Amino acid sequence: MQRVVGSILIIIATTGAGYMYGAELSRYLEKMRYLRYVAGLIRGEMEYTCAPLPEVFRETGRRVKEPYASWLRHLAEETDRREESAFARIWNRSIDRDLKELGMKSEHSILLKEMGTFLGQIDRETSDRSMQLYMNRMDLEIEKLREGLASRKKIGNCLGVMGGIFLVVVLL
Amino acid sequence: MERQDRRSQILKILARSVRKIIDEEVPDIGKLQEIRMRTGQPLRITKESRDISLPEGAEEHIVTKEELRETMEYISRYSLYAYENEMRQGFLTVEGGHRVGVAGKVIMEKEKVKNIQYISSVNIRVSHEVIGCADTLLPYITKNRQVCHTLIISPPGCGKTTLIRDLIRQISDGNTYVKGCSVGVVDERSELGGCCLGIAQNHLGTRTDILDCCPKADGMIMLIRSMAPQVIAVDEIGTREDIHAVEYAMQCGCKLIASVHGLDMEEASRKPVLGELIRRRMFERYVVLGNGKHPGEIRGIYDERGRVLCKE
Known about the structure:
Chain A: The chain crosses the membrane at residues 6-23, 154-171. The structure holds 2 protein chains of 2 kinds. Chain A is mainly α.
């Protein structure tokens, strides 16, 4: 009886882990989509108000959820303080510090950091074009994530169940 | 945003190495008039009308290209794109109303200045709020505690913005000579109010409404329609549109205080459209400023017929 209960628990646990893996993938996709939404808000604010970056970040920060809100608030404070000779350094540091909890993959983190190299540095037209280019690249990344999502979720679920069964067989 | 003190406003827009020198060498920022940075040249300031290279009594600090780049980053708050229109005119205004003039390589597009790059010179003109500097002027430009249409004529750097700022404050708050009334200010270059996020950093009085960064001609009409001001104040009118808007405002029952670049009344009346207004005696008072003993020195006050009311 104990063996049967133990086997069922193992299978439930590994199936749950598989399911969690799939859910995590969906959450990651959502995070990337939200990041793209934030980038869109920044672009819109820059284009519409033509305000300097600290104001753009402050205003955008009011309209987004955590941790993006604190990230943008800190960015606004740091740019206003004017202690760093290049904006990209403030941007990169803030990503590493405030968006750590997003658990971004290194390629996505690099992509986001690239945005800091052109933000605010050029004329309005070029700045807008660069933002558009960046958002297109983000769309591409999101599309890649979305395409692989269903199959990876399925693999995760299957592996969870199969792994559990395998473990039970081995242990029995 | 809270009002920041003048010292920190100036220091935070300078490259860190220059910031350190100014911080050590200029203990009283109130006396500072200009900071001039030119690539490969000594760092210079103008203090109490004296041109000084820094540090004083030591080897001059030579301004580097990197320091200028860093200063521009701070001046624009890492956002050069936001100051494109201002850069086209060769200067931008920072928090506190301090004016930063720039020179470098001009980029042209369709025979018009598009932007300035490779900035090689920066001139930071420190804005001064001299509370009470319009005290002597006010009795001459008021009648029955009402302000007269007034034109301030002055060459650059003679303190007309400082004078207008104090006039606005006194008219808005009211005193023995003038009954406090609502004042509309069109602050195209953010020099009068020194607005930061729409909030004036300078004292402009309790009954003052400011249209910040708004073209003067449009702003005057907007104010008349929306805020019903009794007095409108504008700095440095120049274009045909500005002067037509001034005339429109005068015909709408508002009293007008404006300033224009010029040496004297004769020079002002030679200006194409403004001259016509002067000949039609639209302005009731003319104030001519000079830079003799001190900035903001009143050289003469005249009435609409050009009769002298007061002379230095």
